[in-house]
């Protein structure tokens, strides 16, 4: 059973090959290889949710690379990674707005009874499954920390 997201990736890869879109072909092949590796590791085909998890980790790698290359002054590599990231993002669920993310964080803070920055782990444990693939974990962590610090 093929996941609909995987079918879309495969169809887009064929289309990109026909159009000679080198960037998209390269990124889609990388996505397929990562999915295949995860399937081998798991021993069965991945669901759309598991594919999104793979895409999330690939996106995180791109963001980290962009930061590193920017620090090293390698603008051509920053551009390449940014282009790859935008292709990856096109297969991810729509990102949460600032307001939606804040609402999820605030309700998680209330649920967990968090009162200080020491409780950040409790809050993150509730927030992350709710935002999976729709918000960057690093951004979520920074927001949770800022909200908890302001309530101290």
Descriptive account of the structure:
The protein has 152 residues and is an all-alpha fold. The protein has two domains: 4-89, Orthogonal Bundle (Hypothetical Protein Yqey, Chain: A, domain1), CATH 1.10.1510; 98-151, Orthogonal Bundle (Arc Repressor Mutant, subunit A). Helix content is 77%, strand content 0%. It has seven helices and no strands. The chain has helices at residues 4-18, 22-42, 48-71, 75-89, 98-112, 120-131, 137-151. The mean pLDDT is 90.
Secondary-structure blueprint:
Layout: H1 4-18, H2 22-42, H3 48-71, H4 75-89, H5 98-112, H6 120-131, H7 137-151
Instruction: Estimate the strand proportion.
Output: under 5%
Low-confidence stretches: none
Domain module count: 2
Judged by helices, strands and strand pairing, the structural class is mainly alpha
Task: Provide keyphrases for this structure.
152 residues; mainly alpha; Hypothetical Protein Yqey, Chain: A, domain1; Arc Repressor Mutant, subunit A; 2 domains; 0% strand; globular
Short description:
The chain is an all-alpha fold. Helices cover 77% and strands 0% of the residues.
């Amino acid at each position: 059973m093929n996941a609909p997201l995987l079918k879309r990736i495969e169809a887009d890869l064929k289309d990109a090959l026909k159009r000679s879109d080198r960037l998209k072909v390269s990124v889609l092949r990388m996505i397929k290889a990562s999915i295949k590796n995860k399937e081998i590791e798991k021993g069965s085909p991945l669901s759309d949710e598991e594919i999104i998890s793979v895409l999330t980790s690939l996106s995180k790698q791109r963001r980290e690379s962009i930061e590193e290359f920017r620090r090293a002054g390698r603008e051509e590599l920053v551009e390449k990674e940014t282009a790859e990231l935008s292709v990856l993002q096109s297969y991810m669920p729509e990102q949460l707005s600032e307001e939606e993310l804040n609402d999820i964080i605030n309700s998680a803070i209330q649920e967990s009874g968090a009162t200080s920055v020491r409780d950040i782990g409790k809050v993150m444990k509730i927030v992350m499954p709710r935002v999976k693939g729709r918000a960057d974990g690093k951004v979520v962590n920074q927001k949770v920390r800022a909200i908890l610090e302001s309530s101290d």
